[in-house]
């Protein structure tokens, strides 16, 4: 288990799925965790699970599409725990399903506001706090659709590709200042986001999506969280600027 004793991690979208498992993973390593989400009930449950795993936690209701709310979450975390070492920009939405020529302008801006602007805000306000704490790491959660295309999801695909580029730019900027920055590109993971899209076990859609992966199944939130936590650990000390897949072989085909 990675050692994070005395360190602090801030995780957006921490109220469920990958964010929740990542929060628990940090807690098991001894870290304190700032859980950010718009879902107050989910965030409170994650706080309980973090505490049960041996860590301290603070929930801050945060809409990552609003810069002032992300800034406030970072400030609250530093005030509560004294420092900030890691930021995991995990919050994301799928958006509407429509071809590019029919995609709503409002829908485009909504997806970009969360999936891209939210990641930028997390870095914009997280980086100064991490620098002030002596360094650390940032992990941005992108997607396999940040590496390849998918019909009828232009905003999602574009936003996730942009996250990969933003990650590389920041990695170059802060490599010699003690901050490593990487992105993680999960395949289709069994999370509430897929449930909202109607992709549930036993459905035709679930079987279709599973078959797109070489392992012929969906991933679990913990399988992604394991990589995220590792990237923040000293074991990944020479890893920065990488776009790493955890996709069951989706992109190797």
Please provide a written account of the structure.
This protein has helices spanning 17-28, 40-52, 67-81, 105-115, 117-132, 154-174, 192-196, 204-211, 221-232; strands at residues 8-12, 32-37, 57-61, 86-89, 136-141, 179-186, 243-246. With 253 residues, it is an alpha/beta fold. It has one domain (8-191, 220-252): NAD(P)-binding Rossmann-like Domain (Rossmann fold, 3-Layer(aba) Sandwich), CATH 3.40.50.720. A seven-stranded parallel beta sheet has the order 3-2-1-4-5-6-7, with helices on both faces. Helix 1 (17-28) runs parallel beside helix 2 (40-52) and helix 1 packs across helix 9.
Would you spell out the secondary-structure blueprint of this structure?
Blueprint: E1 8-12, H1 17-28, E2 32-37, H2 40-52, E3 57-61, H3 67-81, E4 86-89, H4 105-115, H5 117-132, E5 136-141, H6 154-174, E6 179-186, H7 192-196, H8 204-211, H9 221-232, E7 243-246
Parallel strand pairs: 1-2, 1-4, 2-3, 4-5, 5-6, 6-7
Helix pairs in contact: 1-2, 1-9, 3-5, 4-6
Extract low-pLDDT stretches: none
Indicate the CATH architecture: 3-Layer(aba) Sandwich
User: How much of the residues is beta strand, in percent?
Assistant: 15-25%
Through-space gap between termini = 32 Å
Strand order within the widest beta sheet: 3-2-1-4-5-6-7
Number of strands: 7
What's the rounded overall pLDDT mean? 96
Report the total helices. Answer: 9
Number of domains: 1
The dominant shape is globular
CATH superfamily descriptor: NAD(P)-binding Rossmann-like Domain
Q: How would a textbook summarize the main sheet?
A: 7 strands, parallel
The gyration radius over C-alpha positions equals: 17 Å
H/E element sequence: EHEHEHEHHEHEHHHE
CATH third-tier fold name: Rossmann fold
């Amino acid at each position: 288990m990675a050692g994070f004793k005395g360190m602090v991690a801030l995780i957006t979208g921490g109220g469920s799925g990958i964010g929740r498992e990542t929060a628990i993973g940090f807690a098991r390593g001894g870290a304190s965790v700032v859980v950010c989400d718009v879902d107050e009930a989910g965030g409170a449950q994650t706080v309980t699970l973090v505490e049960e795993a041996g860590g301290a936690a603070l929930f801050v209701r945060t809409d990552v599409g609003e810069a002032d709310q992300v800034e406030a979450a970072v400030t609250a975390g530093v005030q509560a725990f004294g420092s900030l070492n890691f930021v995991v920009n995990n919050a994301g939405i799928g958006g509407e399903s429509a071809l590019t020529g029919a995609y709503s302008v409002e829908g485009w801006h909504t997806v970009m506001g969360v999936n891209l602007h939210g990641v930028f805000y997390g870095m914009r306000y997280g980086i100064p706090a991490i620098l002030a704490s002596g360094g650390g790491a940032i992990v941005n959660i992108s997607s396999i659709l940040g590496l390849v295309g998918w019909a009828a999801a232009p905003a999602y695909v574009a936003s996730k590709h942009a996250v990969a580029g933003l990650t590389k730019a920041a990695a170059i900027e802060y490599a010699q200042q003690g901050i490593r920055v990487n992105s993680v590109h999960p395949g289709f993971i069994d999370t509430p986001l897929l449930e909202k899209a109607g992709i549930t076990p036993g459905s035709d859609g679930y079987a279709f999506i599973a078959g797109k992966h070489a392992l012929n199944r969906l991933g679990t939130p913990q399988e992604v969280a394991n990589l995220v936590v590792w990237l923040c650990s000293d074991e990944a000390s020479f890893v920065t600027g990488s776009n790493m897949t955890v996709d069951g072989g989706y992109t190797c085909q």
